[in-house]
Structure formats: structure tokens, C-alpha cells
Please model this.
Amino acid sequence: MPRHIRMPDTGEKIRVEGDRLVVPDQPVVGYVEGDGIGPDITRACLRIWDAAVEKAYGGKRKIHWCEIYLGEKAASLYDGQYFPQEALEAFEEVIVSIKGPLTTPVGGGFRSLNVALRQDLDLYACVRPVRHYSGVPSPLKHPGKVDVVIFRENTEDVYCGIEFKSGTEENEKLARFLREEMGADFFEGAGLGIKPISEFGTKRLVRKAIQYAVDHGRESVTLVHKGNIMKFTEGAFRSWGYEVARDEFGDVTITEEQLYNEYKGKQPEGKIVIKDRIADIMFQMMLLRPEEFDVLATMNLNGDYLSDAIAAEVGGVGIAPGANMSDHVAVFEATHGTAPKYANLDKVNPGSLLFSGVMMLEYMGWQEAADLITLAYPELITDGVVTYDFARQITGATEVKTSEFADALIERMRGGIDLEAKRKQQQEQLVKERRQREIRRLLEPMEEMIATGKVPTAVSDLMTRSLITVRDEETVEVAMHAMADNDVNSVVVEPDDSGQWGILTKRDIVTKIVNGGRNPSTTRVADIATRPVMSVPPETTIREAANILSANQFSRLTIEQGGRVIGMVTEDDIFQTVEKFGWSVE
Ligand code: NAP
Model:
């Protein structure tokens, strides 16, 4: 077998010491150019990554690239071999590499090169961070709320290839065994496939996902599964996932049930919440409430669907990055294909490969270089400097070639990005968003019901417990700030001299302040609050509450116990309960 891969004469190998990746300042990193559009995007990205490293570390650090051959380029060098053994050895030797897309040769007898790479290097986790960059066209109203990292198991599930074609001898043998010895019942002539999900495979994937959440200060890890139907495969994934969290990360994780039962919905500092969601609801949640998810751990098939669906929410697979990882060896890769019709036209978007490189720099611990790219990129898109795919979605954009996009990005990075200021800004934004999520969790009783698996029956099950209260003598302006800061539609007004509680709503601001021609900074809360409020005891059933609301044309009730208002229920809470849990007419 001829040898073509040459380790660079300069640079030092990345190594593993104990459990740790040791990255020297002059590391050797592998790259595969890829087929089709691969050379165009790889050429552009190599220049961008090098420029980011140069700018971030002033020449102290530099990547020494080692080209590894796979796909069509390999076939031309290795006498028709698309996946030479030498390449496999090189990936293991350099530990960190990045690859462009590869053509899967059509015809019998070829394994997909990507599948082969994953299997042969045991790259068991497919990692896909999905977030929005401002300016990138998206079908969502608020794509900025999407910021998740998906850990998809890469080696098990129905992708194992244990399948038996209908009508074959093997199929009939297995069908007979299942019917006669296992009591299974299914249609005659069915094709059969096996879905192995193991404790080992699940735990190493979930372990990696939780470790990532720990290392990157993420708030939660969600186990995605369909365990309600496939109990011993998908259900087992859920159970083993919780086991890893409890047994190996017990000091830094809590379950969602604990969050509500022990911590009253307030996430303790430094703890990651482990939760689980049924796969189908996850697709809905990622559209309606994406901000509630952070790190996702999934099995192979669910993860395959979910990765592309979530990527589409923020601009499509054209810019979604990815990596396939084992414990240490990692191959970062563009997630799109070779788009052969655009090959060598210097036309396509380098975004997917570019951000896979950003992931790679982060994996190497070179955060500053990664940040430079991440911060410069949206500036360029917002200015409308984009490749053809975005240009057709952004009015007035300037369409540039792949190489010109790289030039512009490099110029932007060199032109001075104030990393410190941008980081501070991002940090502040993060803190603000966390606080908003926290408030919502505290105020939305439905979250608790879903998390703890209960079904609401009385108003105490759906009432908002953490009420925002104001005093009578405060100005309306103060009350308005309290509503805005806490993201609520109403505040409870503390009892007046006669001991009666009151309520002040956003609607009151519209009707009694704006429409009523009053000044919020001089009007007192007592002047416009509604009193008395309609109160019911906590054990009131949902139906009784609905009766009271409709008979009196109210939109909210306060819940009183021992002369104190302890919660509130609105029409909206009842609506959400019925929407989430259904309603049976007795
Ligand atoms: P594809 O190569 O991803 O291309 C499909 C379409 O996606 C393109 O026609 C283009 O859309 C858009 N697109 C893809 N990459 C883009 C980029 N960088 N910038 C802008 N637009 C981009 O999918 P395919 O045509 O199904 O597959 C072609 C070959 O790639 C096959 O041999 C397949 O096996 C292989 N493949 C490899 C990988 C991998 O190596 N990881 C992954 C998937 C597929 P418009 O036509 O609308 O402009």
C-alpha cells in the first residue's frame, strides 16, 4: 500500500495524558479537503482559522496542518481506494481533525465513508451545536432563543444494520423464532430490523453530554426518548441516563423533580438540571419554547431527525456545524454534502465547515480564536456580505464568492474586534435570559406539573405561587416596573386598612391610566387597583373556578388561605391546563 500522508516537519502532536487532552502551542491538526465543494470551502476556512489564531495569540500559537486523504482524492492516490487504512491511522495519530463533505460512491458494496469513519474510529457521539447568528435568515420569529448542543448517539439503535429483508431465509428464521418462541405477533412477510440500545452505549453518550454541560456552564441536560412506547430500548435510555447523572455527577446535577419539590423551582447555583422529554413533544417544544433547552442527549434515530430540524430553525444545514467524537479522537465536519453542481465554482457558503472549526478550536481550548470568528461573522452577515444562498433570502444583500467571504471575514477580525467588550455584553445578555427563565419557572405552575408527572385537579395545582406584590401607597409607575421586570401581567396589591387585597393589571394601565388621562408617576396604586378581589380556597376544583370566572366575567382569581393571598389563577392558566392535559366531561 503506497503511503501519501506526510506529518508536517514542524509542529508537535496533540496527546492525551490521563483523561486530559494536551494541546501544545504548535499542534499538528489533520484536515480532509473533501469532494465536490469541499476544496472551495476548505481552502477558505483554513485561511480564516489561521488568521483567527494569528490575531488571537499574536503568533505564539499556530496550527500545523496535516492533509489526510479520503474520498475521491484518496481514490486517485491509492488506486481506487476511497478509505485507505493509512487515513484511519492518521486520524488516531493526530487526535483532532476536520473534514469537508465526502461523496458516497453509488453502487453496491460501498459503505458510506462517513459511517465507516464513525464505526472504525468508534466516534460514538455526534455533537451538533445549534444557535442563531444575528442577520442569518430564519423561519422563526425569535431564532435568537435557539441555543442548544445536541449529543446524538452514533453507534447503536436501528442504524446498526441488523436488518432482514422480507422473503429471505434469515427473515423467515427470525420471524419463526419471534412468533413461536417469543409469542410475538406481526404481519406475514414483514421486513425485520433490530434496535439495540445498551447500558454501555447510553451511559458513555450521556456522560459526555453532562460533562460538556459542566465544562461550558450550561443549565440543563434533556434526555430525549420515546420510552412511553419502546420501554426496554428508549425507556432504558432514559433510566440509564438518569443513573449516570446520579451516580457520576451527583454533586453537580439535580433532577427536574428535585428542582420543583426541593428547590421550589429556583435552580441552585452551580447545579445542572437533568430532565427528559418525549421525542415527539421535543419537536414542538423546540419551535415554541426553545429557550428552555440547553444540552440534549438523544439516541441515534431521534437525534438524526432532531439535529436537522433544529438546524433548519436557525438557517439550515448550510451553516450548522458538527463533530463526531470518541473519548478523545474527534473529527469535526461540515454537515452538508458535496453539492456537486457547485463544485469548483467558488460559490457556496463556508459556514458549516467554518463553525465546525470554531468547535474544534474550543475543543483545543483556544477559546479566544474561536470567539474572534463567532463575533466577526454576524457583523458581516448583518452588513449583507453573504454567499449566494443567503443572498437569495436577504433583500439588498451583496453576494460574494466563497473566497471573497473569507477575505472579508479576515479583514473584519484584523480590523479589531473588542473581544472583552463583546464578551461582557454576551455575559450580561446571558444573565438576563437566565433570570427571565427563572422567573417563568417560578411563575408557571404548569412546568411543575409536567416535570413531576401529576395531573392538575384543583386550583392549587395550577396557581402561580410566587406572586409579585406592591403596596397601596406606591405609585403606578413602580407597579409597572415590577410587572415589566418580572415579566407578569398583573401584581397583587397588599391589603388596605380594611384588610382587603387588591389587584392591578396591565389592562388597568391601558384603561385607567392611558385612557383615563392619568400620570403613572403621580397616581397611587390604591387609586386604580381593583378591590375586593375574587378569592377562592386552594381546594376549589378547576371546574368550579371556571364557573366563577365565567359567571362574574373575571379573568383571574386569587387563592386565599387563612386570610392570606397565597396564589393566583388566570383564564390563561386554565386554558393551558386543558390544552396540555386534556379535559374529560364527567
Ligand atoms: P448536499 O450536497 O448537502 O446539497 C443539497 C443542497 O444543499 C445543495 O444543492 C444546496 O442547495 C445546499 N447546500 C449544501 N451545501 C451548501 C453550502 N455549503 N452552501 C450553500 N448551499 C449548500 O446534499 P445532496 O445533494 O443530497 O448530496 C450530495 C452528495 O453529498 C452525496 O454523494 C451524499 O452522499 C454526500 N453527502 C455527504 C455528507 C458528508 O460528507 N457529511 C453529508 C450529506 C451528503 P441549493 O441547490 O438550493 O443551492
Q: What stands out?
A: The chain has a mean pLDDT of 90. The two ends are 77 Å apart (CA to CA).
